[in-house]
UniProtKB/TrEMBL annotation:
It comes from Lotharella globosa. Keywords: Repeat. The keyword Repeat applies. SUPFAM superfamilies: RNI-like. InterPro entries: Leu-rich_rpt (IPR001611), LRR-containing_regulator (IPR052201), LRR_dom_sf (IPR032675). This is Uncharacterized protein. Residues 1-41 are annotated as: Disordered. Pfam families: LRR_6. The keyword Repeat applies. It comes from the Eukaryota. Residues 1-12 have a biased composition (Gly residues).
Length: 169
């Protein structure tokens, strides 16, 4: 059940919404967030990302998990998001699998990693990470003491893998 009361299980399941406020169908079981974090639908609007980033930037934000996978995020959305996540002191897990992150936006991700004080898990799988972006990611990893899990599954790192590996302890 979504957002309703009663029925089996005894607990209330929080209603999930797209960034634009519409109610999406629930994702497949494998894609659901068991920790109660945010789940975002397929096409976030600029307004939705702005609202999300504003909330992430507040001290009242208690969100620990943010799953944005399979949303196509442009450079401007990525810049806003990465700045907000870098400022946030609560968010632990950010998933941006297959978000079409551009090489320019990957530089925002690198800065976010460098500045984040709470992020422990970052999933970037199925995004292209060219050598220049991998070098920036590697440098950021060396400056971050909280990130313990980085998923770069099928990111076509090629020559850039060395930069990431060199940053590992």
């Amino acid at each position: 059940r979504r957002g309703g009361r009663g029925g089996g299980g005894g607990g209330r399941v929080p209603e999930r919404r797209h960034l634009d406020g519409s109610s999406p169908p629930l994702p497949p079981a494998a894609a659901r967030d068991p920790s109660g974090g945010a789940w975002v639908g397929k096409t976030p609007s600029g307004t939705g990302i702005g609202k999300l980033c504003a909330q992430l930037s507040t001290e009242q934000c208690s969100l620990q998990t943010l799953l944005l996978s399979f949303n196509q995020l442009g450079d401007r959305e990525m810049e806003l998001l990465c700045r907000a996540v870098a400022k946030n002191r609560v968010l632990k897990w950010l998933a941006m699998v297959n978000c079409g992150i551009s090489p320019k936006a990957m530089s925002y991700v690198a800065n976010m990693i460098k500045d984040s004080k709470s992020l422990t898990r970052l999933d970037l799988g199925l995004n292209t990470v060219p050598a220049k972006a991998a070098k920036a990611l590697g440098a950021s990893l060396g400056a971050n003491s909280t990130l313990t899990a980085l998923d770069l599954t099928q990111c076509r790192l090629r020559g850039g893998v060395g930069f990431v590996v060199e940053a590992l302890p």
